[in-house]
UniProtKB/TrEMBL annotation:
Protein name: TonB-dependent receptor
This protein's record includes keyword Lipoprotein: no
Record localization: Cell outer membrane
PROSITE patterns associated with the record: TONB_DEPENDENT_REC_3
Keyword Membrane: yes
Length: 658
């Protein structure tokens, strides 16, 4: 069980308790997102619990940072194609709930690469949960659900077949191509086939220094079948294969200050995902079920010895979530409930054979998890909602450090209140649980057995206020939101190394505090968004033999940042123009390996043209890092050697839809 009571008497906790007790709480993003108008193009719809409206991203994204870095509370670390990693409020991807088409991405492979291989081009939607505010989410810091396109997304009304070809060039230093075909084969069956490739050379950073060990290519194949069995049932079966291969460095998260000369090798990093999704609509109840197998493999060949080393991690999973709307005792209710289970297995292989760990044991690690959860959103009076929730977690691990079983029942309470049709407030308190993760498959564990290894537990408090109005102050739309959070994590585990070179252990207790604020507006063809994000972390208690110091920040602390987006449409010419700026402040505090992280400011501009006379053609031109800033993201794992981002990059992409 969690050692921290649901309501800890901190200042923010007191505020939230009061908000839960009286009618002053609401989910600011929910209503605003529902009201948002979305125009579908070949792009990615991004919705976030921390923002007011859905965005359509029209960037020529070949890295997650191109797509998500300007979202409040979110940062993307890593510059290498294999090393992109998601960070939410300073919490890394290993403590987030990340899925692609419902398939969990918890495959921990190697601490010098990321644990997420994904192609931004084929994404239809990204749903970002900034912070954990519901028992439906199993991540310590929230999560991200990626959804890829299917034929139904792309076919116009009464269309039976379509195709799209695309090619792009980037001056620093890559080119890309893709092809998509989609069809309504019968009245009930649709299919999509997709292929894309990116060829990369070593880019230069803002100081004109060429990166080392990034020359290679990525390929992505995907086939997705949909079957509308009847009006109540839809099945989707998809196969998604992603390969990133080249003459890469083993230390892909370390910058040019590190000597990579002995680490450049032929490396392949692949993801193979098979997913079956089922959507069931039964009047007042909707059910979504995902059954999947997700395998990731990291392989390199030592040219001196011809030894082939591999890390292979497989996740099998099932998740079913239902939502039922009903009326009881004159009150409207929305019940959400579900079950999920995963089996994870990691193996270190040498020349195709499982490699033993240092103690002579079979170098295979495994983890089995099961969760059962439910929450009920009750409208007590008009506009006032209260949502209690409960989640049971069962987690069994078998690794060098532990063969223990961890169980916990956690609770959550959220309230929201629509004060008017424009003002909304919310508050929530959600207990947290996460069992120790597998230590990564590429290296055999260097950890000794630790009978005291514990699961991470804690609680997340949040409170927010939002304003959303149409036709006000001469504007077509005006919005504002402010969210403040306080997160406590007990028995924090530093996932950066996860027991590879020392004992896999709990470091101590961590407190994270911060806020996200956003202001947006639209008038005619002009739209603008300004956001400010702040996060601050520190160790409030240390366990024995911790590698951290009291008051020190966690490794992935990102600090303060401002993002500004400006867009303008000229419909008569088929033009869409946008400007994005991000200002990140210095992080002048102690973090492991670094005494400080330098701030930076980066600016991008983009122009998309869809000729009014040839609307099947789209041309997109952009300049990334306009002023050639020399910088590295605060979210990058650099171990004291900065992983500098690419410098100025001119991009041009042309696509044609048949």
């Amino acid at each position: 069980m969690s050692t921290k009571p649901l309501f800890t008497p901190t200042p923010l906790a007191v505020l939230i308790c009061a908000a839960c007790a009286f009618p002053v709480a609401a989910n600011a993003a929910d209503k605003a997102t529902d009201d948002a108008e979305v125009v579908q193009v070949w792009g990615t719809a991004i919705s976030s619990s921390s923002i007011l409206t859905s965005d359509i991203e029209l960037k020529q994204a070949d890295h997650l940072s191109d797509l998500l870095r300007d979202q409040p509370g979110v940062d993307i670390g890593g510059t290498h194609s294999m090393n992109q990693g998601i960070n939410i409020r300073g919490i890394s991807e290993l403590d987030l709930n990340i899925t692609i088409d419902g398939a969990s991405q918890t495959n921990n492979v190697f601490h010098h690469v990321g644990n997420l291989l994904i192609n931004p081009d084929i994404l239809q939607a990204v749903d970002i949960q900034v912070g954990n505010n519901s028992v439906l989410n199993g991540g310590l810091g929230g999560g991200i659900a990626f959804e890829t396109k299917d034929a139904k997304d792309l076919l116009k009304k009464d269309e039976k077949f379509g195709a799209r070809l695309s090619a792009g060039f980037a001056s620093n230093d890559s080119y890309s191509y893709s092809g998509t075909a989609y069809s309504q084969l019968t009245d009930t069956i649709d299919v999509l086939a997709y292929y894309s490739g990116i060829e990369r050379n070593n880019p230069e950073d803002g100081a004109g220094v060429e990166a080392v060990g990034q020359e290679g290519s990525t390929e992505n194949y995907m086939v997705k079948f949909g079957w509308d069995a009847n009006q109540a049932n839809r099945l989707e079966l998809s196969y998604d294969y992603y390969e990133d291969a080249g003459d890469y460095t083993l230390k892909s998260n370390l910058g040019n200050d590190f000597d990579h000369s002995n680490y450049i090798r032929p490396i392949e990093y692949t993801r193979e995902t098979l997913t079956l999704n089922h959507e069931l609509a039964l009047g007042i109840t909707d059910v979504h079920t995902s059954l999947y197998r997700n395998e990731m493999n990291y392989k390199n060949t030592n040219s001196d010895t011809n030894e082939v080393s591999e890390g292979n991690t497989i996740v099998y999973g099932l998740k079913a979530v239902a939502e039922t709307s009903y009326e009881l005792a004159g009150m409207y209710n929305t019940a959400r409930y579900g079950v999920e289970g995963k089996q994870e297995e990691a193996q270190k292989l040498v020349n195709g054979q499982v490699s033993d760990d240092p103690n002579g044991n079979d170098g295979t690690e495994s983890a089995d998890s099961f969760a059962l959860y439910a929450e009920n959103e009750i409208e007590l009076i008009n506009g006032l909602f209260v949502t209690p929730g409960v989640r049971y977690n069962h987690y069994k691990i078998d690794i060098m450090a532990s063969d223990d079983t961890f169980t916990d029942t956690i609770f959550a309470l959220a309230t929201k209140y629509e004060l008017t049709d424009k003002w909304t407030v919310r508050a929530s308190a959600t207990e947290l649980f996460k069992g120790p993760g597998l230590t990564g498959s590429y290296l055999t564990s260097g950890s000794t057995y630790n009978p005291d290894l514990k699961a991470e537990t804690g609680i997340n408090y949040e409170a927010a206020v939002a304003y959303q109005a149409q036709q006000v102050m001469g504007l077509d739309q005006l919005g504002f939101s402010f969210t403040v959070f306080e997160t406590h994590i007990d028995d924090y585990i530093n996932d950066t190394m996860t027991g590879k070179v020392s004992t896999y252990s709990n470091e101590g207790d961590v407190e994270l505090v911060g806020y996200e604020s956003e202001f947006n507006l639209r008038r005619g063809n002009l739209s603008a968004r300004l956001s400010y994000s702040h996060s601050d972390s520190e160790f409030t208690k240390l366990n024995d033999n911790s590698s951290f110091a009291l008051g020190q920040a966690i490794d992935d602390e990102v600090g303060d940042s401002i993002a500004f987006n400006l867009g303008y449409d000229i419909a008569d010419l088929g033009l869409n123009m946008s400007w994005t700026s991000q200002l990140v402040f210095d992080l002048d505090k102690d973090v492991e390996a670094d005494s400080a992280k330098e701030g930076y400011n980066v600016h991008d501009v983009s122009l998309r043209w869809v000729p009014t006379s040839v609307q099947e053609l789209t041309i997109t031109a952009s300049v990334e890092n306009i002023f050639d800033e020399h910088y590295s993201s605060h979210a990058s794992h650099d171990f004291g050697v900065s992983d500098y981002e690419p410098g100025r990059n001119y991009k041009l992409t042309a696509s044609y839809k048949f």
